[in-house]
Amino acid sequence: MELGFDTIGNATLIAYDRGPILATDPWIDGSPYFGSWVLAHEVPAEQREAIARCPFVWISHGHPDHLDGDSLNLFKDATILLPDHRGSRIRDGFVEQGRTVKVLPDREWTQLSPNIRVLSIADYNQDALLLVDVGGTLLVDLNDASDHGWESFVKKTIREFRRSFLLRLTGYGDTDMINFHDEQGRRITPPAQLRKASGLPLGPRIAHIAESFGVTHTLPFSAMHRYQRADSVWASESAADVDDHAIGFKSTQVEMLPPYIRFDCNKGTFETIDPEATNPKILPPEAFGDNWSEQLERAESEQLEAYFRRMEHLPRCFDFLNFRVGGKDHRIELRTGKFRRGVTFEAPRHSLMTAVRYEIFDDLLIGNFMKTTLHGSWPASDLHPDFTPYVRYADNGRARTLDELKAYFAAYRQRLTPLERLRLSAKKSSTDLFRTLVPRESLAWKVARRLTVRR
Residue by residue, what is the 3-state secondary structure of 384-427? Predict the structure, then answer.
């Protein structure tokens, strides 16, 4: 292609300027989240070859459907472009492997070819977005990112372009921990499953978001997966099918395109790529090294406790964490006193200890075979905002102590303008107030949960 782009895989964009130049988040092979996920569609040979030829590969963040270990060898000679994440964990890992790495400063354009330039913004959620200018066509690759102060800047940039595409996570909300159980061991129907079962179409919300950004085009992105583990395949009832995203989409300002396309920026036309559906075979957890009857060894239990004790924010919000492995409980007392709040995670030994050793506990949550039970008084937002984000800050941001967390947040605040800080603070305050004042069982809360997709 002379000048244009392809969309393929889960969240992969391939930009061309007289040949392939840039690939983003290339999950091509492999089964992320401890074997739980598989691509919804194969990546065709033409696109695989193009990715392998790209001199630049962008990795937005550490989730394995964006940074897939089994796909790394496909682009081993490329320069890895990374956002400027606090903690630099991904950068350090690539450097140790001998890879060529370039960290992109926030909000600065970097020229990759005569007609392609990129601009990156990292945020404190350890996520990032990438703006790609392909000869005057702007691609807004938000992947899984949600606004953490950058939205006004992005919207202003979009207005500078005549043609723009929003590439953003869409779906019902299964890309988070949704495997919650009550204290009697019964699974709690996830909001994502309720959204899908209700028949509430995805299209109107996608149209609203795209219009609010001011883009001219949008397409489904970053939600193109299926489940293949026998103990997580139940989550398929919460996952969007490829055609669900366009249902109910109506807009006079934004055109919705199919998820897999080749767009010619010179002609302003596109053709559909029709990759083959994967139709995954359901595999037992043993295929991925997990036996639910295996118990922890004493040294592993001590390692598990040490891992969570170093996260100094957790005792401020939780009394205990309990891990049920092979039917045996391992209780970590975070503080003494009257019982208020705790959580039980029931997980197979192999995946649990892999998550601990490699400091990727968030991946275990998203795999949705681990069972989670909340005890005591919890916010309606469940593991957010005091558990999952802080595990991510510790693992990927290297911010574990209270002093490290203070410096971590200060570093990201300094990247925002005073007005952006004010807007972000007001947005967070209104969200917290809603969670405090609106009952979880109310209609308003149910509507809000249906309209929200969180990662």
Answer: CCCCHHHHHHHHCCCCCCHHHHHHHHHHHHCCCCHHHHHHHHHH
Residue 158 structural domain:
3-283
List CB contacts of 337: < 8 A, sequence separation 6 or more: 319
- Output the DSSP codes for 55-116: SEEE---SSTTTS-GGGGGGGTTSEEEEE--TT-HHHHHHHHTT--EEEEPBT-EEEEETTE
Number of other residues whose CB lies within 10 A of the CB of residue 412: 19
The CATH number of residue 107's host domain is 3.60.15.10
Does 449 map to a domain?
no
Q: How far is CA 289 from CA 157, 236, 284, 331, in A?
A: 47, 22, 10, 24
DSSP letter assigned to residue 150: -
Looking at 223, 257, 283, the residue that finishes a domain is 283
> Crossing angle of helices 203-213/151-158, nearest 10°?
80
- The residue type of 30 is G
Whether residue 335 has pLDDT greater than 70? yes
User: Tokens 């199919």 — which residue?
Assistant: 258
Band (437; pLDDT cuts 50, 70, 90): very low
Report the alpha-carbon distance of residue 418 to residue 409 in Å, rounded.
Answer: 15
Which pLDDT does position 203 carry in this prediction?
97
Amino acid at residue number 80: I
Local confidence band at 338 (pLDDT 50, 70, 90 cut-offs): confident
In this structure, the strands spanning 255-256 and 137-143 are: unpaired
